[in-house]
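User: tokens in, sequence out, please.
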């Protein structure tokens, strides 16, 4: 899954999420994350809550 956050560069979003222990990567202006069926919904909620 890839997403953009208006008003903030993908690299900055990745830096913020990584500082909170959430693995993501910048990909040509997008933030790339890879949620899978074995990741608990609470972990996805934690990522969404950590977004700037």
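Assistant: Sequence out:
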């Amino acid at each position: 899954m890839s997403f953009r956050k208006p008003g903030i560069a993908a690299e900055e979003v990745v830096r913020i999420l990584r500082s909170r222990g959430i693995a993501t990567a910048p990909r040509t202006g997008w933030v790339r994350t890879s949620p899978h069926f074995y990741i608990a919904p609470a972990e996805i909620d934690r990522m969404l809550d950590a977004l700037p």
